[in-house]
Amino acid sequence: MNKEVKNLVIISAAILSFVLILSLSSCSIFKNIIKISTGTAADKSTSGENASSTQISNNTASSATAGENTDGNNLDGSTENNENGAEDNENGNSSVMDSPALDNYRLVYFEITSDEKSNHFEHRVASIYSIKIDGNDKKLIYSDINDKYDLGSILSISPDGKKIACMIDDGARGVYSALCVLDIEGGGLKKLVEFDYSQEPENILLALYGTPIWSPDSTRLAYELISNPYTSNFRDRGVFIVDVETGNIKEVVLDVGGASIRSTMFMLPVFFFEEGSKIAAAFHPYYAVEENSKVTGYYSLNEGLNCFGIEGGGVTHLFETNIFKGKGPEIISSFDKFSYIENLGKMVFQVLGDFEEDGDVWISNIDGNNAKKLTNDVQLREQQPDVYVGNGKDPMVAYAGVKRYGTISNQIPSGDIYIINTDSTNNRKLTNYTIGPSKPVFSPDGIYIAYVNSIYDENFENIEQNQIEVVDIAQGNILIPVKNGFIDLIGWMTGN
């Protein structure tokens, strides 16, 4: 592997460790630690890399900076209290104190702090906690303070709320990382897939692409491997499934009529379906970035959806993103954030245009038929959908509505939290911040939505802090169980 690629890998790891401790986080969504982003003028490189999926109501969380925001941010420079009552419900509310949420489930979140006892860079300490929605009974699940490696990207929480997929890495060197699973109840961390080039730092060939997805029964993770990322030798290395209990890894051997699947298909698993027997995968070719007739980098972009059985075999082409032309943006920068609704045979996902175009949450059959927008507010760039299935008759979708100004779309990935039914009815705004809330996640019973609320600097260029808030969908009351720190929301867990 050439020196340029090695440098890219080392820089990627160093940036994550440094930013989490010392700097204000970028307004862009953080990349996973094992990804190397080059970007384009329209920042197209983010769309392929950040594809993720949920099974029913779980989403991913990357290791990002975070903090506090008691009052909402407005882009006009003013602040306003959330009219739904966030300022009155910081640690306890009569409507919540009797809720089953206090006894049946808890929030799980990631936090970065500093401790002189830590041997990590700048005495960095990464920890995972759980807490009740009223802000009480905070419990430590895991800390890397005594570990050799950094707890890096937090990828996703399992559908049963008992496990967390995450990465560990060696920080600035960038020659070791591993995909791991964390047992929430027991606190044990297990390595599943290692990428160890400590003995051959010049030959970093393989890396994990995107976010691994959970099987519906929470026993397996499916993922894509790539080699020589974002170079002229950028190649796909196949799709694999790992059993999180045994650690057994199996390649899904695919037949595409003689074509070299390992080098040409670039298929990122985005969700399991048909009771876990099949996988839908986003097809993401890569392109060169040119400036003054010179190639300056490469990016990858989701351009369609395929599917195949978990035992391998033939690949079925489902559709390409050109089905959105005329109904969606002309230039698609993001086709991702998938959730599959098994009993309806439908999937929910986001389609975002470039900085001058709109973005919406969509729903369709898995083959792309009957595709329609769930959201259609031209003043909002709707994104980050999370699905609550419930009894299966009236699934709900939570999403972040990001403000647009004329023909210009705000690239800050936060706005306000909204909810809508999958038949496009009962669309409601649940918060009133204009900017700040993002990453909505339904509680297991669909009564609450947790989300991250970010407070920005006066120029809205960097996040100063985050906090985690919870909104009661029916009553509109807002709790702030976690504040004042570099934090990020992972999801919900069952138990007390």
Topology, element by element:
Blueprint: H1 3-22, E1 25-26, H2 45-49, E2 53-55, E3 72-73, E4 79-80, H3 94-97, H4 101-104, E5 105-114, E6 124-131, E7 139-143, E8 150-157, E9 163-169, E10 176-183, E11 189-196, E12 206-214, E13 220-227, E14 235-243, E15 249-251, E16 254-255, H5 261-264, E17 267-273, E18 278-283, E19 286-291, E20 294-300, E21 304-309, E22 313-314, E23 316-320, E24 332-341, E25 346-353, E26 359-365, E27 372-373, E28 380-388, E29 396-405, E30 408-409, E31 416-421, E32 428-429, E33 437-442, E34 448-456, E35 462-472, E36 478-494
Parallel strand pairs: 2-24, 16-22
Antiparallel strand pairs: 1-35, 3-4, 5-6, 5-36, 6-7, 8-9, 9-10, 10-11, 12-13, 13-14, 14-15, 17-18, 18-21, 19-20, 21-23, 24-25, 25-26, 26-27, 28-29, 29-30, 29-31, 31-32, 33-34, 34-35, 35-36
What does the model show?
The protein has about 500 residues and is mainly β. It has a single domain, classed as Neuraminidase, CATH 2.120.10.30. The protein has 5 helices and 36 strands. Strands 1, 5, 6, 7, 33, 34, 35 and 36 form an 8-stranded antiparallel beta sheet that branches. The protein has a 5-stranded mixed beta sheet with strand order 2-24-25-26-27. Strands 28, 29, 30, 31 and 32 form a 5-stranded antiparallel beta sheet that branches. The longest helix is centred in the first third of the chain and has 20 residues, at about 5-20. It is globular and about 55 Å long.
